[in-house]
Amino acid sequence: MNPEPFKIVPVGFVRKEPETHIEILPEFWEAVEGLRDGDWIKLVLWFHESDTPARRKVLKVHPYGNPKNPLTGVFATRSPYRPNPIALYTVKIHRIEEGRLYIGEIDALDRTPVVDIKIFVERYDCPKEVPIEEREAKIRAGRMIGEVNVIPRKVEHLDELEEVSPEEYDALILEIGPKTTTLTAKELVELIEALKEVYESLPVEIMDNLRRREGRSP
Asked: How far apart, in Å, do the first and last CA atoms of the chain sit?
């Protein structure tokens, strides 16, 4: 099998001076919209220094470059020597300035190409046993409210619901920044009641402003 090569273009570069940051190319600045200071992101880099025919043929290495470690397939290591020299980092955005994402120190070289940036999501990036499986999550119905993503549960995969109590039925997924949790039906009702109390305790001026925006009389 001889798969056809495909093209990857950099969206930016790692820069080390005056402090570590990602310099986004101007044509991709709009793609940064929605990221905030404090967000955790996944960086996909292209280790250009390892992009040589010889290094791309290396399939086994001594982990951490220590010959005392047994030879191990590169897919089981973090070695930069691999068939496609892709590197992954999980980093926190310290601040965002025009065209730049300032992050913590990483071991990538200056001018290392950045081929993609993705928001870190615990549910995908740190998978664990969760009450609601991916096939049961109604992803397209998810609502983003600030940094909170609310994803309801589908119902077509559920059987014999009469035997499930509200305390046992997991109703939705809550993603708050990089963290993920679930709420049972009982907890969802309690949250709705708590939010109603908060809403009703808002200052009169804020309530009137909200009603005017909704086209209702104060």
From this structure: 70
Contacts of residue 145, defined as CB under 8 A and 6 or more positions apart, other chains included, come to none
Q: Residue 64: in which H helix or E strand, if any?
A: none
User: Both tokens of residue 21?
Assistant: 């940051």
Distance CA(32)–CA(202), nearest Å, equals 33
Q: How many residues in total does the chain contain?
A: 218
* pLDDT tens column, 91-119: 999 999 989 999 999 999 999 999 999 99
Q: How many CA atoms lie within 13 A of 64 on its CB side?
A: 4
Tokens representing 218? 């104060």
Backbone dihedral angles phi then psi of residue 103, each to the nearest 5 degrees: -130, 175
- How many CA within 13 A on the CB side of residue 124? 12
pLDDT digits (tens, 9 = 90+) for 160-209: 556 778 888 888 888 887 778 889 889 999 999 999 999 989 998 888 88
Q: Which two tokens stand for residue 120?
A: 């870190």
